[in-house]
Amino acid sequence: MTLKFLVLKAIAVLVAVQLVNAAPLERRATTGEHSTQTLPAGTPQQHGLATNWTVTGYPSTVAVSRLSSSNNGVAVTSAVVSTLQDFARLASTAYCSVGSAGGQLTCNSYCRNFPNTIVVKTFSISATATIGFIARNDGKKAIYVAYRGSTNINNFIHDSHFFHSKYPPVPGANVHTGFLESFQDARSIVYPTVVEQMNNHPGYTLYMVGHSLGGALTVLQALDFYQNAGYTSKNMVIYTYGEPRVGDPTFSTYVDSLKLPFYRTVNRNDIVPHLPPESFGYKHHASEYWIEDSAGTVVNCVIDEDSTCSNSVVPFTSIAAHRLYWNVHMSISAC
């Protein structure tokens, strides 16, 4: 073999590796997971999911009513619901200007639920539109990290590829490429700042929150803190709202194995938690907290991809349900 041939062969191998590492999964969803229902002809949809189905207009055959008799759904106490609502407000504030480092957390009316909270640092990465803040409340011995969701969720919903990349900490695991890149861009700010705060304030608890795509970043950063800073359920709690699927079944199994306190809240027929579709090779981690009705009733679904929880309303999903959790506006309209 000539040297030229060997060089060309090596280049071909490297190109093939790059394509594998960032290839889109090939299968395409048609009717939505865990459902035998089909959408009426002419219904606006993406990936087999309705984009604007009303939250009160489920067909009678949709299995929402099965939840009460399901062995998988566990009733949630009013105290837990109140906590979920409080952190939904904190997640909402990430869409707003929250003030300058060293000053009080100030934004909209939702900030009143977090008085005497000091802004430690804000961050905005233009390349990936990754925005959020880090704050501290000495009275509550709490450190907060909040990631903003996308201001144009339609771009994500209409993505036809859902590229994935290898997740380096876990052999064989893959995660959404865009989520991984956004997490990596913000990590150089978030990780050292939080570690410094936690080291300087022993006994404090780290609370991580995020809505929509911000929920996905929250998951990846929480795992980073577990892997590299040693944070566990003793000093870290994670709240996400309308979180999309982050990775594949291997990734999901890894997340579940850590026994970290994940509160993955889904509002009624919110479309985003059903993306990327399972048929693209993605799977949610536990534990789902489903707001199942207009009264705000919450049920904890303790297994992955529970067919009697939010998956039961597929494919009758809605973008509108993604923007309002209880009475909390999850968008820049809250500012």
Automatic annotation (TrEMBL):
Keyword match Signal: yes
Domain Fungal lipase-type: 144-279
Gene3D superfamilies recorded: alpha/beta hydrolase
Keywords for the protein's UniProt record, in alphabetical order: Hydrolase, Protease, Signal
Any one GO biological process: lipid metabolic process
One Pfam short name: Lipase_3
CDD domains reported for this sequence: Lipase_3
Residues making up the signal peptide according to the UniProt record: 1-22
One of the record's GO molecular function terms: peptidase activity
Protein name (database record): A serine protease triad forms the catalytic Centre of A triacylglycerol lipase
